Structure formats: structure tokens, C-alpha cells
Amino acid sequence: MALTLYVDTDRWRAHQRSIVADFPGLVPVCKGNGYGFGHDRLSEEVSLLEMEMLAVGTTYEAEAMKDRFSGDILVLTPYRRTEEPVPLPDRVVRSASSVDGVYGLVGSRVVVEVMSSMRRHGVAPQDLGKLHAALDDVRLEGFAIHLPLDRTDGTDAVEEVIEWMDRLRAARLPLDTMYVSHLTSEQLLRLRQQFPQTTFRARIGTRLWLGDHGATEYRGAVLDVTPVGKGDRFGYRQQKAPGDGWLAVVAGGTSHGVGLEAPKALHGMTSRAKGMARASLATVNRNLSPFVWDGKQRWFAEPPHMQVSILFVPAESKGPKVGDEFKAILRHTTTQVDRVVDRPVDR
């Protein structure tokens, strides 16, 4: 009995091909937990797409990926002199976000990241003049800019890239290749038209692997079902059942990422009100689970265990049975499944 990620493979791959067609020169991103699919699976998919480069998050991921993927591997995390050395082949391309980082990568293939409005990391405009000497001792693969997802101030992502292109040109730095993130195909077309001598390569992960929500579905198998009456005590903390119904033990616990939620940016009064309501319910041990049964999202009977969750299903609902599967609404980037199964997704 497992927490399973079901993949409608034909539909999923059709979406991948559509993204590749919309973004010529695309660099697929495979980092973290492999967007829920795992590194082995995504490396296979990149090979099937006949892509010559993929991007990973860290040098440790690059070390693992070098035996799975035979093409070039771009490490997105910038180099730091204090980092632990990891043996990597020459086909690995390192990122640098400072002049000092470039100096530390003598002889390496390097992509230099510039500081965007993300304010995360990157070479600042005032340091561009110092790059010339540092670049003499590396093999420059291009520059990169990582852009924000939302622009609440109304600014234009394309204009931000153009400003940086103008700065690089004014500093007499090569504009052969620019790696970009979080641009639409229409925005990339605008850039290509304005800078026909530059190759723009979009680094894409989420949109490529997770852009078609209907192509995947998580489900947790029911391992046990126990009938309970209102007031019956159960579980580690011997809480009382809120009513008549069933306790369903479902595959999927904290080791899978169930019950773990990343912080969200709340916009507007409605989302804030919902957040306050969830917090208020949590103070009385009422936490909504990600599992859906009989058309409704079910409550945790108690906090999820390491590998299973215990859910309360009220008596007025359809009674679950061992072997049934509860659909689960889970975040791909924080979920570790027991297995991935290729089959049309049930709806």
C-alpha cells in the first residue's frame, strides 16, 4: 500500500513537447526532489526530448546527475570559494554571481548571473567593469538573469532584461548567450527581435514538468478502516472522535511531505481571512488534510504520522474500504512518493 503519483504519460509528454516548441533553446531544470517525479525519471525525459543541457540546483545534484545524463549540466547555485569541493566532469557548467566567484573558477565553464530585481544574488552594475580581467581565465558560456514571478509594481520583465543587455554592451562584455527565467514565449520573442545576435535560453522547471495539472494525480492507499462512535478515544493522544464514522489509515505521512506546508504570500482580504480561519481551527486540533474522499477534503483525526495519516470520515459519507485510494492535493516540490505509476489519470 503506497502513496502513488499517477502520471498520464502521453498527456504529460505532449505538454513537454509543446513547451519545448514554444521556447527554442530551452534548458530543462531538474532540482530538489525532481518536481515530485525524481531525478531518475526527469533525466530520462530530458534524454527523450533530445536536449543537450539540463540545469540542477547544487553541485551534489550535479554529481548524482552526471551518471544519469550524458549532456552538459548547469549548476544554478553560484560558486563560493568556501564550498566543499565536489569532483565534477568538464561538461558541468558553474554559475558565478560575483567577480570573486569568477576568479575562483579558473579554467571552468562559467555562466555569470547578474543582479535582478529579485535581489537574491548576482553581479551588481557597478562591478561589471571588474569582470573583464576575471573572464580571461574562464570559459564564458554566457550571462544569466533570474526574474521574479510577480510584478506588483507594474514593471515590465522584458524592460528589465533590456536594461541589463544595455549595461553589458556598455561594459563591452559579450552578448552571445543570455539565460533567462520566468519569461513567457511572447516576451522572449520580443527580446530575440531586439537582440538578434544574442541567443536567449529559458531555464524552465515548473512550467515544463508541472504545467498541465490534469496530467498527474496523487493518491494514498487505505491500509485500515476502524468504525468509531462519537466520543470514542483513539490515537497517540487519545483524542475523542467528533462523531460517528470511521478512522481511515491512509498511506502518506510526514516522511512523504504530508502535513508540511511552505509559507504562502497572501494577497487580498479573502486569502487573509482564510488563513486566519485555518489558524483558528488549528488551535482546537482541527486541521484539514490534503486527502479527498467522497468528493470532500477530509480532516486529520490527529497529526500525520511518519508514513501514514489517520483521517476522520463521518458516517454520512461513503464508507472507505482497505485498498481504496484517497486522492491527495499535494505540492509536487515537497512530496516524496513511494512509487510513480504511468497510467491515464482518473477524474
Question: What can you tell me about this protein's structure?
Answer:
There is one protein chain. With 347 residues, the protein is of the alpha/beta class. The protein is 24% helix and 28% strand. The strands form three sheets. Strands 2-9-8-7-6-5-4-3 form an eight-stranded parallel β-sheet. Helix 5 links the parallel strand 6 and strand 7.
Please mark out the parts with pLDDT under 50 across 5 or more consecutive residues, or reply none. 272-284
What is the H-and-E element order? EHEHEHEEHEHEHEHEHEEEEHEEEEE
Label the structural class: alpha/beta
Rounded radius of gyration (Å): 24 Å
Mean pLDDT across every amino acid position: 93
Portion of residues in beta strands equals: 25-35%
Care to count the β-strands? 18
Layout of strands and helices, then pairs:
Layout: E1 3-7, H1 9-22, E2 27-28, H2 39-48, E3 53-56, H3 59-65, E4 72-78, E5 92-96, H4 99-103, E6 109-114, H5 131-135, E7 139-146, H6 157-170, E8 177-181, H7 185-194, E9 199-204, H8 206-210, E10 216-228, E11 233-234, E12 239-240, E13 245-251, H9 268-282, E14 288-293, E15 296-300, E16 308-314, E17 325-328, E18 339-342
Parallel strand pairs: 1-18, 2-9, 3-4, 4-5, 5-6, 6-7, 7-8, 8-9
Antiparallel strand pairs: 1-10, 10-13, 10-17, 11-12, 13-16, 14-15, 14-17, 15-16
Short description:
With 347 residues, this protein is an alpha/beta fold. 24% of the residues lie in helices and 28% in strands.
Feature tags:
347 residues; alpha/beta; elongated; 28% strand; 6-stranded antiparallel beta barrel
